[in-house]
Amino acid sequence: MKQDFPKLGIAVLCRLFGKTRHAYYDCLWRKESSLVKEDVILQEVLNIRKDLPRLGTRKLHYLVQNKLMSHQIAFGRDYLFDLLSEHKLLIRQRKRKAITTDSRHWMRKYSNLLKGLAVTRPEQVWVSDITYIRLTNQWGYLSLITDAYSRKIMGYSFRQDLAAEGCIEALKMALNNRQYGQSIIHHSDRGSQYCSHNYVDLLMKNNIAISMTENGDPYENALAERVNGIIKTEFNLYSSSLGFDQTKHRISKSIKSYNELRPHASCDYLTPNQAHLQSEILNKRWKNYNRSFNHEKAIV
């Protein structure tokens, strides 16, 4: 009788609430199944963030959903937002700004060749910019060259100064990584590094057209600024407590993960390496969102 008492109690309670015992146990099963589903999703999120530590929720949804499709686990974007919010795994955007451009110099400045230009293939337009990384007792400066079509980082250099040599090193790496022989436009701000004789000479020797922003408008080089932000925000590179050489190694590893693993909504959710192999106009799958969870904003 003692063993049957719990079952009898459940049966009475179910009748009181107008439910069957089957419905009660079915509810328990669904709850257990939901907890297992949450655990599987969270484990996949943590695995992805080992290489992409601050990847935003929308791209996580795309990657995790594809991984779990074979396990017949489906979930929506809002479900993932709520799940990550509950476990405090949403990414907070950080807005910081340091000036790395000095356009008040005597060297020649070039016109903006990108106005009205449609980017339709890889290695049609390269965009360049410099960003800063705070080290323990100094600053480090990261020069990047990004392909405007695929968002692939073609070349980079990390130095302890803002001299033109860093930009030249990044450009030489980009030239070595070229996969196509078609013409290129190189676009940058009007900083002295990009106007220097050695930098301009290297571009001209490789028959690369030179384009620059006009009137100091940051939106004219928005793509380069965006890639800077992704590398610093999603890979925790606003600052580094490591030494210069260790930080340089970390940057190299982060750029490799960015090129090989991170999908871009503006490139039909392809990684930069995948997009760089395409030859047609890529679908843009991003939208403007204005949703916050506990004052956190997920990175698109």
UniProtKB/TrEMBL annotation:
Family annotation (Pfam families): rve
InterPro entries the record matches: Integrase_cat-core (IPR001584), RNaseH-like_sf (IPR012337), RNaseH_sf (IPR036397), Transpos_IS3 (IPR048020), Transposase_IS3/IS150/IS904 (IPR050900)
GO biological process entries: DNA integration
Record GO terms (molecular function): nucleic acid binding
Domain named Integrase catalytic: residues: 118-280
The protein's name in its UniProt record: IS3 family transposase
